[in-house]
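not sure who needs this but someone in the group chat was asking about Tripartite tricarboxylate transporter substrate binding protein from Sediminicoccus rosea so here u go. i didnt clean anything up, its just raw.
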Amino acid sequence: MKTTRRALLAAPLLATPALAQSPWPNRPIRILVGFPAGGTTDLLGRLAGQILTEELGQPVVIENRPGAGSNIAAQAVLRSPADGYTLLLGSPGTNAINAHLYSNAGYDPLTDFLPISQIAEVPNLLAAHPSLGVRDVPGLIALAKQRRLSYGETSIGGSTHLSAEMFRLMAGIEATHVPYRGSAPMMVDLLPGRIDYGVDNMPTIINHVRSGALVGIGVTSARRWPTSPDIQAIAETLPGYEVTAWFGLVAPRGTPPEVIVRANAALRAGLVKPETVARLSELGAAALPGTPEEYQARNVAQHARLGELIRRIGVKAD
């Protein structure tokens, strides 16, 4: 009788929502990606989803919400409950660029989102058509000073555009800018030589260089990229040059700290696995496991640096 009475007294307490609720996560998680399927951002979002699924034991659904440089996806995440079940694949656009590029991006990247963890860093690659007859940065600069060249990039105001503009400014050249909405449209013109050179994320252009269809002129990282050490860094010719793309997961402001901690631990565990490192290496990316504080420090620094470049070239998306 005493045991039954204790059980009856305890029953209301066990039914209390705060006590009955299972720890996060206890249902599927969504990751919103602000670009179409198949690009670098999408590939890294799917990799993050796979890691979280394996480490947390819950399915992760990737939703592509392209438009306005990822602003549509970012705004949708910000409107979602801050409970850890709707996350955003953060990119240079959402984390640093769009606040300067749009008159009203609809969010403050440094205060409206909580960083969880970086996933990977990706350099951009400047590549030229073989018919141009140049194989390195000094050769391209010399030719560009002899005659006006044309160049493409894959996202107005994005890291590829800023990489191309910083190169133009630091090299002291003029060139005809041909903007494209993504990698595939640019390749339609770059591969047959209708434009002279282009800048794209390393993972989406490197196979064209490996096949010989394009010539890798220079990577946009501060040093040569480990997966393509034969391609020089632009900074070897133009000291101080550097523009890379960094990606990670963020959550809407107000997400419980314990969710951030657990999601960070899951990503870090998955990113150091040899198979993950190898997969990223194949894509031309480098894993960036780290703390939320490290992620935010990069966001703050790049927000200031890229904002200054955007003001200098005078580009606006609206």
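also DSSP finds twelve helices and ten strands in the chain. if thats useful
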